[in-house]
Design goal:
This protein has one domain: Alpha-Beta Plaits. The chain is 34% helix and 23% strand. The protein has helices at residues 16-25, 51-59, 70-77, and strands at 7-10, 31-36, 41-45, 66-68.
């Protein structure tokens, strides 16, 4: 179901729409999906060649973004 090439992240739940809009504006990066929107956990369905640029964009947003491994995202979702 979840892929290792995707970029997983955590933001304040109120910022999920903002992240989605930014990534949508960068049409070629990927598609944002909420793993648990109420906890602010999501991922971007990237390809191997867009994952690094997606991480860069997320890390340079004017909001706090915590990048996660797939395992961290799953564990936080299950808390």
């Amino acid at each position: 179901m979840l892929d290792d090439d995707w970029v997983y992240f955590k933001v304040a739940p109120s910022e999920m729409t903002f992240v989605n809009r930014i990534i949508e504006g960068c049409e070629y990066l990927g598609v944002v999906t909420a793993l648990d929107g109420k906890k602010g956990i999501g991922f971007v369905r990237t390809t191997a060649d867009t994952a690094e640029e997606t991480r860069f964009v997320l890390q340079h947003l004017p909001i706090p973004v915590r990048l996660l491994s797939k395992e961290e995202a799953i564990n936080l979702q299950n808390l």
